[in-house]
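Structural biology now treats backbone shape like a language. To illustrate, our science desk offers a sequence and the tokens encoding its fold:
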Amino acid sequence: MWDFVRDSYQQILFASWQHLSLVVQCLVLATVLAVVLSALVYRSKTASALANGVSAMGLTIPSFALIGLLIAPFGFGVLPAVIVVTFFATLPILRNAVVGLNSIPASVVESARGIGMSRFRTLATVELPMAWPIILAGIRVSAQMVMGIAAVAAYTLGPGLGGFIFSGLSRLGGANAFESVVVGVVGVILLAIILDLLLVVLSRLTTSRGIRV
């Protein structure tokens, strides 16, 4: 194992960077999509229930099956990996964003409107900041979930540590096959821990002290 890591450490580091970059970029895109969608639907009970239902049903779709379906229209490469990771990352964030915005006391919203704030300004400066801790909790859940999905997405020859896993599995019994799988799996776990710690720091930096208390 040590010899394999020593001989392949540059490739491992590059794949780890690709994996983390893919997940972070898809999380940012998913957060924007989820917040925009939640802002459009949270005032309607019917639309909120529909959004929550779609989120729940979307999570039941096997990631490997979705990847297989995307190969036909988009081929192999980065694009299907980005689509799959972003899709699954959006679902928990969307649910938490809807819950967070609906949890804002009506009296707070009415007070903001009463002092002359527009609906958009109320959403941007009052509701979203108050709902941010709940939204961020959804982001942390998504981060852990899609870190593994990004490895599965390597089936499309996408970037990341999943390449080590599939490479090892395809030649089990051969030289360094087991080591390749272990490096991929352990690398994904370590990246998930690192990203979660970074999100904890982000939470401390972006959540006002009054809300934390």
Notes: Residues 2-41 form the longest helix (40 residues). The CA atoms of residues 42 and 94 lie 10 Å apart.
